[in-house]
């Protein structure tokens, strides 16, 4: 027995909620993108003030030269977060952030041996960014206003 109807939508236990879910679908996706981008930009704001401040840390992870990768990390988090918030170059911004977050998963889980407990937030962030890599922008984005998406 299928839980979907002919139009591919799920049969709801409370059918009256369907119109609410439909009305809020795109807005909730936009809210998730804005919050994800905003928090990523805020997180990166301390790094963009001193873009080479993480040079030793990234070299400790095996990324040489540290100054280059520290600058790239700072820009990815700060500007990528702003771009994601705005829905501008949504997929590339989310992809760049995803790579950074997957490195932090490795760093916390393996390099410093914290396992799942240490990598938990990075895993959650990775999942959110992966969603936007695949989904891309919606109509509430700069990409949509430009009429093009990556």
UniProtKB/TrEMBL annotation:
InterPro entries: DoxX (IPR032808), DoxX-like_oxidoreductase (IPR051907)
Coiled coil residues, start to end: none
UniProt-annotated location(s): Cell membrane
Biological source species: Aquamicrobium lusatiense
Keywords, in A-Z order: Cell membrane, Membrane, Transmembrane, Transmembrane helix
Name this polypeptide is given: Putative oxidoreductase
Key word Metal-binding present: no
Similarity comment: Belongs to the DoxX family.
Topology of the protein relative to the lipid bilayer: Multi-pass membrane protein
Any Gene Ontology CC annotation: plasma membrane
Keyword Membrane: yes
Entry's transmembrane regions: 67-88, 95-116
């Amino acid at each position: 027995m299928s839980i979907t109807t002919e139009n591919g939508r799920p049969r709801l236990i409370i059918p009256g909620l369907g119109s609410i879910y439909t009305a809020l679908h795109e807005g909730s996706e936009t809210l998730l993108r804005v919050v994800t981008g905003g928090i990523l930009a805020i997180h990166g704001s301390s790094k963009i003030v001193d873009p080479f401040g993480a040079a030793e840390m990234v070299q400790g992870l095996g990324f040489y030269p540290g100054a280059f990768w520290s600058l790239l990390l700072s820009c990815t988090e700060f500007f990528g977060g702003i771009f994601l918030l705005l829905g501008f170059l949504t997929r590339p911004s989310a992809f760049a952030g995803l790579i950074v977050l997957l490195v932090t998963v490795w760093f916390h889980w393996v390099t410093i041996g914290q396992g799942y407990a240490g990598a938990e937030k990075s895993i959650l962030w990775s999942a959110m960014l992966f969603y936007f890599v695949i989904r891309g922008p919606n109509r509430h984005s700069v990409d949509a206003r430009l009429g093009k998406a990556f």
